[in-house]
Amino acid sequence: MIEIIKDKFIKKNGNLYKLIINDKKTKEVITINPFSTEHYNDIDLFNLRIYCDKNNIKLRVLSTMNYLPVNSQYADELILVENKDHMQKAYDSTDNVTTLNSSFFNTKIWIGYFETRFYQIGKNPLERDCYDKTGIIKKIYNEVDIKELNNFILNKKVFIRESSFEAFKNLKLPENIFIAEIKPTFKNLIKTLRKKNVFGLDYCFQREILEKTKHHYMAVQILSSINLDWKIIGAGGSARLFSMLPTKNILLMARDLYGNDEKIKPKKMGWIKKENFPWLGNQINKNWTIDDVDLETIFTQPPQPSWL
Questions:
Q1: Which residue has the higher pLDDT, 160 or 263?
Q2: What is the mean pLDDT of the chain?
Q3: What is the DSSP string of the chain?
Q4: Is 232 exposed, middle or buried (0-12, 13-18, 19+ CB in 10 A)?
Q5: How would DSSP label each residue in 240-306?
Q6: Lowest-pLDDT range, 119-133, 154-168, 249-263, 272-286?
Q7: Which residues pair with 160 in a beta bridge?
Q8: How many CB atoms lie within 10 A of CB 221?
Q9: Is 97 left (phi over 0), alpha (psi -120 to 50) or beta?
Q10: pLDDT mean over 104-121
Q11: Which of 21, 79, 209, 262 has the fewest CB atoms below 10 angstroms from its CB?
């Protein structure tokens, strides 16, 4: 599930870094940029990796260093940048979003690498960004079946830098906590969760860790959930992110978690019915809240890694 890699395997070239995870013997390469201003990864990216494996295509992924653990799950090759703008704007006090980059970051730093911007722009999961020179987006859904996708999810690895693991060990972090990644626009949900001892509702807890860890932050979140029993509550875009990770998720909700819910094991992606906690529903709005009975169910059930 988790594999610690030595930092020396990440090679620097100018302002960019490269990490080769799978050294495929092929000249066919597809390069994707799986985010715009926020993190729009979801399990469709696992479909893409399976497609590339079946057709002997190298999948190159453009990523910030902070998101190495996330994007390493499906990339053959990572092109990384330590973007200061990203880290400074994460949990921005004005917009209250985890900003990954800017237009300059997308167009200038990555110039020469773009082929596909792979993120959802509409309600239909096939409605992806039109900047696709490969035609790959139209093919993957027809060539990857449910068994292949489930098998990939159950066997994939999350790569974490050795330096990130050391950063985690050097922190004094609380154990056995509930931590929320919820935008302030979900006022009713936040009000309800204040009945419980939930960390991170105002993002102060996250900002404090981010300041100490910088580009190790995502790895520290993952390691804390696995080793310190942090239980994740996500609403909005964060739900998509944590749905991909081996974190202990107890409640994930988003309007746009369309992805491939029909192709994943029900225990992994059971967000249509309330009975299938920890996934509670993908049709939410700012006024949505949770009743006391469901709240007690969430906080008393044993959390599971998201793909089990």
A1: 160
A2: 75
A3: -EEEE-GGGSEEETTEEEEESS----S-EEEEE-BSSSB---THHHHHHHHHHHTT-EEEEEEEGGGHHHHTTT-SEEEEE--HHHHHHTT-TTT-S-----HHIIIIITTTT-SEE--B-SSSTT-B-S-BSS-GGGTHHHH--HHHHHHHHHH--EEEEHHHHHHHHTS---SS-EEEEE-TT-HHHHHHHTTS-EE-TTSHHHHHHHHHHGGGHHHHHHHHHHHH--EEEEESHHHHHHTTSSSEEEEEE-TT--TTGGGS-TTTS--SSTTSTTEEES---TT----HHHHHHHHHSPPEETT-
A4: buried
A5: HHHTTSSSEEEEEE-TT--TTGGGS-TTTS--SSTTSTTEEES---TT----HHHHHHHHHSPPEET
A6: 272-286
A7: 4
A8: 24
A9: beta
A10: 57
A11: 262
Q: Are the CB atoms for 105 and 86 separated by under 8 Å?
A: yes
Could you tell me the two tokens for 58? Answer: 């190298």
pTM of the predicted protein model: 0.82
Q: Which residue carries 């972090």 as its tokens?
A: 173
Question: pLDDT digit string (tens) for 189-215?
Answer: 888 888 888 999 988 899 899 999 999
Tell me the one-letter amino acid at 119. Answer: Y
Sequence length of the chain is: 308
At which residue do the structure tokens 């390691």 appear?
223
